[in-house]
Amino acid sequence: ASRGGALGAAGTIAHVPAVGQAGTPTGAAAAALTLHAISPAADGFATVYPCSASVPDVSSINFIQAVDVANQAIVALSAGGEVCVQVSAAMHVVVDLGGWYGSAGTAEFVALTPTRVIDTRVGLGLPAPLSAGGNASLVLAATAGLPAAPGLAAPVAVVTAVDASAAGGLTVHPCMLPLPAASHVRYQAGVNAAVTVVVPDDVNGQWCLAAEQTTHVVMDVSGYFAYPVTFLSQAATVFSTARRLNWTP
């Protein structure tokens, strides 16, 4: 997180360590990150990449002036176990580490036909909007094409905040307390925001959703990571240690 000081200047390249953070081992090939653009001074974008000599001509997140947004990025790691973030406008950056990919992983991805499992506007999945400070649970295992809890490592879903009452954040987590110091969706009052989320379920196959401000939630499951085999390694015990990473311009 860079919010402890001045805004990072336009063109800043931040080096963000992943290896050694939240259980990410040496040899990890890629990381699953949630990138937050905070208080941007102008419209623009940020690019996340594996610290190559040249910055790729792509964007990982787009933002407008003064509006906080978040997006998921799955990015290869550099030889030193880092990713780099370049910003096109002065802004603060927050990076949440959600998981890692590599030969030591223990789960494999399975794609599904997208299925809506939550729409609080019509009482699907959850009966009402999430209230400010609310934390609601939903069993996902053995629903929407997902396997039963013992084999389900992490669902994959697009989570959308709809008609929020005020600016805030939404955290998806494996029903743990205290809540992890990470968020996935950042929303503004009356402005819908969607992010792809990959998060482990708890031992009962549940996800929990915690909201900072009152908002409707829509969630569409599109796949999952399952045990065994090799792919994404991420368990609730590891997720519980995930924290926002410090970065050095």
What do you see in this structure?
2% of the residues lie in helices and 44% in strands. With 249 residues, it is mainly beta. The strands form four sheets. Strands 1-6-3-4 form a four-stranded antiparallel beta sheet, with no helix packed on it. It is globular and about 45 Å long. The relative contact order is 0.23.
Shape: globular
Counting H and I runs of at least 4 residues, what is the number of helices?
Answer: 1
Q: Terminal Cα separation, in Å?
A: 11 Å
Rg result = 17 Å
Structural class: mainly beta
Q: How would you summarize this macromolecular structure in one to three sentences?
A:
This protein has one helix spanning 236-239, and strands at 13-17, 30-38, 44-49, 61-63, 69-76, 82-87, 92-101, 108-119, 135-139, 152-162, 168-173, 185-187, 193-198, 206-211, 216-226, 232-233.
Question: What is the topology?
Answer:
Layout: E1 13-17, E2 30-38, E3 44-49, E4 61-63, E5 69-76, E6 82-87, E7 92-101, E8 108-119, E9 135-139, E10 152-162, E11 168-173, E12 185-187, E13 193-198, E14 206-211, E15 216-226, E16 232-233, H1 236-239
Antiparallel strand pairs: 1-6, 2-5, 2-7, 3-4, 3-6, 7-16, 8-15, 9-14, 10-13, 10-15, 11-12, 11-14
